[in-house]
Design brief:
- The structure holds 2 protein chains of 2 kinds.
- Chain A is mainly α.
- Chain A has one domain.
- Chain A has helices at 2-21, 24-58, 61-68, 73-86, 91-103, 108-121, 123-134, 136-146, 149-160.
- Chain A starts with a helix and ends with a helix.
- The relative contact order of chain A is 0.11.
- Chain B is an all-alpha fold.
- Chain B has one domain.
- Chain B contains 9 helices and no strands.
- The radius of gyration of chain B is 20 Å and the shape is elongated.
- The chains are: A mainly alpha, B mainly alpha.
- The interface between A and B is large, with 79 and 86 residues.
């Protein structure tokens, strides 16, 4: 059901965008972009989806439930945020792990903290790209200011649980 | 200085098939399949692989729609326009504009950080750039629509984005006070 809802939302949005593009030339340009994204991202998606399945099988359910499940509460959020910071690699690595952990019983709040921490503070991106473009001082200031956000987001999600 | 043009800098950055992340992913997958084969037999690996390939077929329409939306945004909203908005207003409205820009500019870090450098050169404050990077990290269209929507259920994505929506402006306001 969830998958169908997501698909319908994106289809409606895509149809609206198609209309907004207006000219055939711009539509073709956008379709060219889709083709480049398929070439680059599809291999990653295939591998990441399979590994999400394998992770879910390997992650011991009892341990995931104990440390990241509904009963773990804010400790789960804290632990997940820490794991997000040290997860290496791009989006498909962290989302494959998150999807695997979700199937193994991790709580929504913990997963929100995990994804948010990886996105804001993931060390791979910070060291590989942000520091070299924006400098060490700026990067450190930004990280200190945004460090509480994964805990705020995860904590807020706990209220909805 | 103007933002780099689309031709010099395609929205996806470099289109290399094998980069570090993909190698990490392949390594993790290899380790995971050996682990599953060890504990439950190689047939289970085949079974899981086929299951998730089937799932991918069901996912494909959603994924392709996501790709299309992300590919069309730079055509509807040229980067030059966004760059011009940012840096004109250093108050709270500037933070709002920076957050919207961070959400809408498609592309990964190799695209976003050079863009942030060009905003800085155009006169944007550090607080504005922090709001921009925070918004892109929290709910940039590329990451949320292409990746997160593919792996996570839609209510998870909706809840996370709803919670995170005001955070870039909040961080920007704090940065404005701290960085004086």
């Amino acid at each position: 059901m969830n998958l169908v809802t997501g698909t319908i939302i994106l289809m409606v949005l895509a149809a609206w965008v198609w209309r907004q593009l207006e000219t055939t030339q711009r539509r073709q340009q956008a379709l060219g972009g889709v083709w480049r994204m398929v070439m680059k991202n599809m291999p990653r998606l295939v591998v990441a989806l399979i590994s999400a399945g394998l992770f879910a099988e390997l992650l011991p359910e009892s341990i995931v439930r104990q440390y990241l499940g509904d009963t773990a509460g804010f400790y789960g959020v804290l632990l997940a945020a820490g794991l997000g910071i040290v997860t290496p690699g791009g989006a498909f690595v962290s989302f494959a792990l998150a999807a695997g952990a979700m199937n193994a019983g991790a709580a929504t709040a913990a997963l929100i903290a995990y994804v948010t921490a990886w996105a804001l503070l993931g060390l791979t991106r910070v060291m590989a790209e942000e520091m070299s473009f924006l400098g060490c001082r700026f990067t450190v200031i930004r990280m200190v200011l945004t460090a509480p956000l994964p805990l705020i987001a995860g904590g807020a999600a706990l209220l909805f649980q | 200085m103007s933002a780099p043009s689309d031709r010099d800098n395609p929205p996806l950055g470099r289109t290399r098939i094998f980069d570090t992340s993909f190698v990490i992913m392949l390594g993790l997958t290899g380790v995971a399949s050996v682990g599953v084969a060890w504990s439950e037999g190689p047939m289970r690996v085949v079974e899981i692989t086929l299951n998730y390939l089937g799932f991918l077929v069901v996912l494909t329409p959603k994924i392709l729609c996501g790709f299309f939306i992300v590919a069309a945004v730079p055509l509807l909203m040229p980067r030059e326009t966004l760059a011009k908005w940012i840096g004109q207003d250093s108050g709270a409205r500037g933070l709002l504009v920076a957050s919207v820009a961070g959400a809408l500019v498609p592309g990964g870090p190799m695209m976003i950080f050079p863009l942030a450098v060009s905003f800085r050169a155009a006169g944007a404050t550090s607080a504005t750039i922090i709001a921009f990077i925070t918004a892109w990290s929290l709910y940039g269209i590329n990451r949320t629509v292409v990746w997160e929507m593919s792996f996570m259920p839609v209510d998870f994505v909706a809840l996370r984005v709803a919670i995170c929506l005001p955070l870039p402006i909040l961080v920007g306001l704090i940065a404005q006070r701290v960085l004086r």
